[in-house]
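We store chain and fold; thus.
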Amino acid sequence: MRTKMVAGNWKMNKNLQEGVALATELKNNVHNPSCAVVIGTPFIHLASVAEILKGSPIALAAENCADKASGAFTGEVSAEMVASTGATYCILGHSERRQYYHETTEILKEKVELALANGLKPIFCVGEIKDEREANCQNEVVKSQLEGSLFHLSEDDFRKITLAYEPVWAIGTGLTATPDQAEQMHAYIRSLVAERYGKAVAEDTTILYGGSCNDKNAAELFAKPDVDGGLIGGAALVAEKFLAIIAAR
C-alpha cells in the first residue's frame, strides 16, 4: 500500500523567524492527517523547525544536499549534516537545481546515494521543460532522468524513494498540467518502475505531482489513481492554503 503524501517546498523564502512561525502554525493545525505531511525548508531553518515539529505528525525535509560526503567544499551542506538536524527527507533533482545549478543525472546519482547512506529518504523530482513537451518527448526525458540517477539502486534502497513529477513549464507559471496529463505521466513513471523492479514495487511507489498545485486544483489532481499527492511550492508558504491541500488528500 503506497503512502499518500503532501510535501511543501519553501524554496528560498521565509527568514528564520518567519519559517519558525509558519512551522508552528502548521504544527498547531495538523493533528491526524489522512496522508503523510512533509515540509521542506532552507538549510538554516532545519534545526529550529525540527525542534518545533517534535511530537507532530509533520516530517521535515531539506531542499538539497551536497554530492560530496565532507571536505573542503565551502558553502555546501552534506547529507550527514542534514540528517544531524533531525530532518528525515531530502528533496533532490528539482528542476530549479537542474536548470540554475547545472545538476546532472550523475551528480544527482551521487546525492541520492549519500542521502540514503545517511538515513534520509529522497523525494526525487523528474520532469520535462516546455520545448520537450511540445516536441512530445517528455517520456524519453523522464525515463532518462530515472535511469541516470535511480535505477542502479537495489530494490530495498529504491523503496525508500518518493518520486515527484514536475512539468517544468508548470512551475511558478500559473499553468498546471491537466489532471489527465498528470495521470498519464504518473502511470508511465509507474510502468518504468515496474519494468525495472517489478509490479509490486511499482504499486508501492509514491508519485507526487508538482507544478502549480494549489488549494483550488489539488482535489481534482489527487483524484487520479496514480497521483499520490503533491509537492507544493508557493501554496506551501501560506498555512491556510497548505492545510487545505492536506485536507484534499
Notes: The two ends are 15 Å apart (CA to CA). The chain has a mean pLDDT of 96. Residues 167 and 181 are 10 Å apart (CA to CA).
